[in-house]
Write a structure and sequence with these properties.
Elements: H1 2-30, E1 47-50, E2 55-57, E3 63-65, E4 70-72, E5 77-79, E6 85-91, E7 98-105
Parallel strand pairs: 5-7
Antiparallel strand pairs: 1-6, 2-3, 3-4, 6-7
């Protein structure tokens, strides 16, 4: 009987930790707002990390998200907290077309040459 109780408690504790970790991994999106539209970035499962290969930087500081061909102006780009690209997008109900909610990019690292 003790083994059963211990096993049940262990399952409850470990599954609760997994749920908490999963929620925490997504928490930072829920407090973000698009700087231009002022709409919340995340409405549930709208945000995710995306591979660097799906993004092209533009000379003006903006980006293009290749899969949906989103042209993301510089004033809608927010700094990513983990040096990865992230996108929050949703789909219009009537047209079934994707639209951008928010976009996050790693901080641009600029190197400066020191005078000799």
């Amino acid at each position: 009987m003790r083994t059963f109780i211990f096993t049940a408690m262990w399952i409850a504790i470990t599954s609760g930790a997994a749920i908490t970790w999963g929620a925490n991994a997504h928490d930072w999106y829920q407090y973000k707002v698009d700087p231009l539209t002022k709409f919340k970035c995340c409405g549930g499962s709208d945000c995710r990390a995306i591979p660097q290969s799906s993004v092209r930087s533009k000379v003006d500081g903006g980006y293009i998200y290749l899969p949906d061909n989103f042209n993301i102006p510089r004033d809608r780009v927010q700094e990513s907290p983990d040096d990865q690209y992230h996108i929050c997008e949703n789909t219009y109900v009537i047209t079934n077309q994707p639209y951008l909610r928010c976009f996050f990019a790693p901080r641009v690292k600029i190197s400066r040459s020191l005078p000799h």
